[in-house]
Amino acid sequence: MVSYGLFWLVVAVFIVGQALLVRAAWRLRKGEASLPPGVPRSHGGADLAWTLATAVLSGVMLYYAYLALV
Q1: Residue 19's pLDDT is what?
Q2: Is 66 left (phi over 0), alpha (psi -120 to 50) or beta?
Q3: What are phi and psi of 41, to 5 degrees?
Q4: Which of 11-20, 30-39, 60-69 bottoms out in mean pLDDT, i.e. has the lowest?
Q5: Are 22 and 55 in contact (CB under 8 A)?
Q6: Cβ–Cβ contacts within 10 Å for residue 10, how many?
């Protein structure tokens, strides 16, 4: 029973964390965020794609972890 509670806690942290990362990547893509002096600007579209790919693959791993619990 503790493993289910721990799993759902991890899922909640994952969702909040990935939402913050996607929001930050979206803001960088649109150029809304101002960077400190001396920090180079990276390609926003690539950053967003990489962030979304990481979120999706992490979600797939969580799905298989859930199947292992069931």
Answers
A1: 95
A2: alpha
A3: -90, 130
A4: 30-39
A5: yes
A6: 12
With beta carbons less than 8 A apart as the criterion, state whether 69 and 4 touch: yes
Structure tokens at 68: 């292992």
Ramachandran area for residue 33 (φ above 0: left; ψ -120 to 50: alpha; else beta) = beta
Residue pair 22/58 in contact by the 8 Å Cβ criterion:
no
Helix segments in the chain, DSSP class H? 2-30, 44-69
Instruction: Give me the count of residues in the chain.
Output: 70
Q: What is the pLDDT of residues 23-55, one digit of tens each?
A: 988 887 876 667 788 877 778 788 899 999 999
